[in-house]
Design brief:
The protein has 240 residues and is of the alpha/beta class. 40% of the residues lie in helices and 29% in strands. The strands form 3 sheets. A 6-stranded mixed sheet has the order 4-1-5-10-6-9. Strands 2-3 form a two-stranded antiparallel ribbon. It has a two-stranded parallel ribbon with strand order 7-8. Strand 7, helix 5 and strand 8 form a beta-alpha-beta unit.
Amino acid sequence: MIRSVILTLLVLVVPAHAQTIKLDTEDYPPFNYREGNEYKGVGVEQVKLLMQDAGLDYSIEMMPWARALSLAMTQQDHCVFTTVHNAERDPKFKWVEPLLTNRTVLVRKAGSGINPDTIEEAKAYSVGTQRDDYTQAILETHQFPKVDLATNQTLSLKKLLSGRIDLMPVSEDYFAVLQREGHAVEVALVLTEDIYSIACNPSVSDEVIARMQTSLDKLIADGTQAMIFEKFGLGGAGTP
């Protein structure tokens, strides 16, 4: 009888501990990127620390953004980061946030003379971005009529610099990275202010989400998140 009870308890307990949360992301510095065989970035470092603190088994894999987002939407125990939490995505996921807050800006090629004062004026120009990136949803919400979709941000940037598109939406922090790397780009207009998060498939239990959130809250409260921002040159990223 006792042996039977013990076996029953093991059956109930083991699956919860054996669960592995699969965290998918893209190559999008300084948030997430690959350096040799190591994953680094503002999002990656926070995710590693919070998952370890929460005592959860996890894996991180880098892949094209559209695939990472699709896996989190359709596959059990999958999450995607670093993801903008917007109205369109809100009901599709369970959320752990904020990994950071940041503005999204429209950038132009330096010296291009393209200078819209409002979003309505910006609609007169061709705008390029990565397919299934959060910025595509922003452009669609604002009904931009001339949108060029590329497979990745690097290709969109090449189109911007070669004059094939007029404007490109990027996070303000990514814009700072582009400037540090010497790309001839400048801000034309502020589009939105965003919260960047971990978005998890609804199959991820509320208990797991709560443990992840508690650990992220600790990173924020003890100053670790701010130190990670500083490390990657994002000093003001946590400021709303």
